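Input.
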Amino acid sequence: MKRHQPKHLYVDNQVYFISAHLADRNFRLDDDFKKDKLLLKIFSFAWENKISLYAWAILENHYHLLFKVSNGLTISKFIGDIHRGFTFEINRMEKASRRRLWKNYWDWCIRDESDYWRHFNYIHHNPIKHGLVPDITALKKYRYSSAWNYLRTKGEKWLMQAFEGYPILDFTVANDE
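Output.
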Protein backbone atom coordinates (compact mmCIF):
# COMPACT_ATOMS: atom_id res chain seq x y z
CA MET A 1 0.00 0.00 0.00
CA LYS A 2 1.31 3.42 -0.96
CA ARG A 3 2.06 5.65 2.04
CA HIS A 4 0.24 8.95 2.13
CA GLN A 5 3.01 11.11 3.53
CA PRO A 6 3.48 14.34 1.59
CA LYS A 7 6.52 16.52 2.17
CA HIS A 8 5.83 19.63 4.20
CA LEU A 9 7.30 23.10 3.78
CA TYR A 10 7.36 25.15 6.98
CA VAL A 11 7.73 28.92 6.58
CA ASP A 12 7.29 31.53 9.32
CA ASN A 13 4.64 34.27 8.99
CA GLN A 14 2.94 32.50 6.12
CA VAL A 15 -0.60 31.59 5.08
CA TYR A 16 -1.28 27.88 4.50
CA PHE A 17 -4.02 25.80 2.93
CA ILE A 18 -4.50 22.41 4.61
CA SER A 19 -6.45 19.40 3.44
CA ALA A 20 -6.79 16.40 5.75
CA HIS A 21 -8.62 13.17 4.90
CA LEU A 22 -9.94 10.37 7.04
CA ALA A 23 -7.88 7.18 6.88
CA ASP A 24 -10.66 4.89 8.05
CA ARG A 25 -13.12 4.52 5.15
CA ASN A 26 -15.72 3.06 7.53
CA PHE A 27 -15.71 6.19 9.68
CA ARG A 28 -17.51 9.33 8.45
CA LEU A 29 -18.03 12.84 9.76
CA ASP A 30 -21.68 12.19 9.05
CA ASP A 31 -23.43 13.87 11.95
CA ASP A 32 -23.38 17.21 13.74
CA PHE A 33 -21.88 15.74 16.90
CA LYS A 34 -18.71 14.58 15.13
CA LYS A 35 -18.40 17.77 13.10
CA ASP A 36 -18.91 19.89 16.24
CA LYS A 37 -16.15 17.93 18.02
CA LEU A 38 -13.76 18.44 15.11
CA LEU A 39 -14.58 22.14 14.79
CA LEU A 40 -14.03 22.63 18.52
CA LYS A 41 -10.61 20.97 18.23
CA ILE A 42 -9.71 23.18 15.27
CA PHE A 43 -10.73 26.37 17.09
CA SER A 44 -9.18 25.50 20.43
CA PHE A 45 -5.85 24.33 19.02
CA ALA A 46 -5.70 27.34 16.65
CA TRP A 47 -6.10 29.60 19.68
CA GLU A 48 -3.56 27.60 21.70
CA ASN A 49 -0.98 27.73 18.87
CA LYS A 50 -1.65 31.42 18.06
CA ILE A 51 -2.89 30.58 14.56
CA SER A 52 -5.22 32.94 12.69
CA LEU A 53 -7.97 31.00 10.90
CA TYR A 54 -9.24 32.63 7.70
CA ALA A 55 -11.41 29.86 6.25
CA TRP A 56 -12.51 26.32 7.01
CA ALA A 57 -14.89 23.64 5.82
CA ILE A 58 -15.66 20.24 7.31
CA LEU A 59 -17.07 17.61 4.96
CA GLU A 60 -17.94 13.93 5.50
CA ASN A 61 -14.47 12.50 4.89
CA HIS A 62 -12.11 15.48 5.02
CA TYR A 63 -11.65 19.08 6.01
CA HIS A 64 -9.87 22.17 4.67
CA LEU A 65 -8.29 25.08 6.52
CA LEU A 66 -6.77 28.38 5.47
CA PHE A 67 -4.72 30.05 8.18
CA LYS A 68 -1.67 32.14 8.99
CA VAL A 69 1.01 30.87 11.29
CA SER A 70 3.79 32.93 12.86
CA ASN A 71 6.07 29.93 13.37
CA GLY A 72 5.96 27.44 10.50
CA LEU A 73 7.15 24.59 12.70
CA THR A 74 3.92 24.78 14.71
CA ILE A 75 1.86 23.54 11.74
CA SER A 76 2.55 19.84 12.32
CA LYS A 77 1.86 20.28 16.05
CA PHE A 78 -1.41 22.10 15.28
CA ILE A 79 -2.68 19.42 12.88
CA GLY A 80 -1.38 16.62 15.12
CA ASP A 81 -3.18 18.11 18.14
CA ILE A 82 -6.43 18.29 16.15
CA HIS A 83 -6.14 14.70 14.89
CA ARG A 84 -4.98 13.19 18.20
CA GLY A 85 -7.54 15.08 20.27
CA PHE A 86 -10.44 14.26 17.96
CA THR A 87 -9.41 10.60 17.56
CA PHE A 88 -8.97 10.11 21.30
CA GLU A 89 -12.43 11.49 22.13
CA ILE A 90 -14.27 9.66 19.35
CA ASN A 91 -12.51 6.35 19.98
CA ARG A 92 -13.25 6.60 23.70
CA MET A 93 -16.94 7.31 23.07
CA GLU A 94 -17.27 4.57 20.45
CA LYS A 95 -15.15 2.11 22.48
CA ALA A 96 -12.75 1.67 19.56
CA SER A 97 -9.22 1.40 20.88
CA ARG A 98 -6.23 2.33 18.74
CA ARG A 99 -8.32 3.09 15.67
CA ARG A 100 -6.49 5.45 13.32
CA LEU A 101 -8.90 7.98 11.84
CA TRP A 102 -6.66 10.40 9.90
CA LYS A 103 -4.21 10.17 7.04
CA ASN A 104 -1.40 12.64 7.03
CA TYR A 105 -2.35 16.12 5.91
CA TRP A 106 -1.51 17.92 2.67
CA ASP A 107 -0.39 21.53 2.89
CA TRP A 108 0.13 24.33 0.43
CA CYS A 109 2.10 27.48 1.17
CA ILE A 110 0.07 30.37 -0.29
CA ARG A 111 2.14 32.20 -2.93
CA ASP A 112 0.33 35.51 -3.45
CA GLU A 113 -3.03 37.28 -3.13
CA SER A 114 -4.55 35.50 -6.10
CA ASP A 115 -3.51 32.12 -4.67
CA TYR A 116 -5.03 33.09 -1.30
CA TRP A 117 -8.41 33.97 -2.83
CA ARG A 118 -8.55 30.84 -5.01
CA HIS A 119 -8.00 28.64 -1.95
CA PHE A 120 -10.45 30.74 0.08
CA ASN A 121 -13.07 30.19 -2.63
CA TYR A 122 -12.23 26.50 -3.00
CA ILE A 123 -12.83 25.95 0.71
CA HIS A 124 -16.14 27.77 0.67
CA HIS A 125 -17.32 26.03 -2.48
CA ASN A 126 -16.54 22.55 -1.07
CA PRO A 127 -19.90 22.01 0.72
CA ILE A 128 -21.61 22.75 -2.63
CA LYS A 129 -19.20 20.52 -4.58
CA HIS A 130 -19.91 17.60 -2.22
CA GLY A 131 -23.68 18.09 -2.26
CA LEU A 132 -24.07 19.19 1.36
CA VAL A 133 -25.78 22.42 0.28
CA PRO A 134 -27.29 23.31 -3.13
CA ASP A 135 -25.86 26.80 -3.64
CA ILE A 136 -24.03 29.80 -2.15
CA THR A 137 -27.15 31.15 -0.43
CA ALA A 138 -27.61 27.83 1.40
CA LEU A 139 -24.09 28.18 2.86
CA LYS A 140 -25.69 30.57 5.38
CA LYS A 141 -27.11 27.51 7.12
CA TYR A 142 -24.06 25.24 6.86
CA ARG A 143 -22.23 25.92 10.11
CA TYR A 144 -19.27 23.68 9.27
CA SER A 145 -17.86 26.22 6.84
CA SER A 146 -16.65 29.74 7.55
CA ALA A 147 -18.74 30.87 4.56
CA TRP A 148 -21.75 31.40 6.84
CA ASN A 149 -19.75 33.98 8.81
CA TYR A 150 -18.62 35.83 5.68
CA LEU A 151 -22.18 35.78 4.31
CA ARG A 152 -23.43 37.21 7.61
CA THR A 153 -20.73 39.88 8.02
CA LYS A 154 -19.84 40.78 4.43
CA GLY A 155 -22.92 39.68 2.48
CA GLU A 156 -23.70 37.46 -0.48
CA LYS A 157 -22.63 40.12 -2.99
CA TRP A 158 -19.14 40.28 -1.43
CA LEU A 159 -18.75 36.49 -1.52
CA MET A 160 -20.00 36.32 -5.12
CA GLN A 161 -17.46 38.99 -6.11
CA ALA A 162 -14.70 36.94 -4.47
CA PHE A 163 -15.86 33.84 -6.38
CA GLU A 164 -16.03 35.72 -9.69
CA GLY A 165 -12.78 37.63 -9.19
CA TYR A 166 -10.77 34.52 -8.32
CA PRO A 167 -12.23 31.46 -10.06
CA ILE A 168 -12.03 28.15 -8.27
CA LEU A 169 -9.38 25.72 -9.42
CA ASP A 170 -9.58 21.99 -8.87
CA PHE A 171 -6.91 21.20 -6.28
CA THR A 172 -7.76 17.48 -6.19
CA VAL A 173 -4.74 15.23 -6.13
CA ALA A 174 -4.89 12.23 -8.51
CA ASN A 175 -6.38 9.14 -6.81
CA ASP A 176 -7.46 11.23 -3.81
CA GLU A 177 -11.09 11.77 -2.80
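The longest helix spans residues 74-93.
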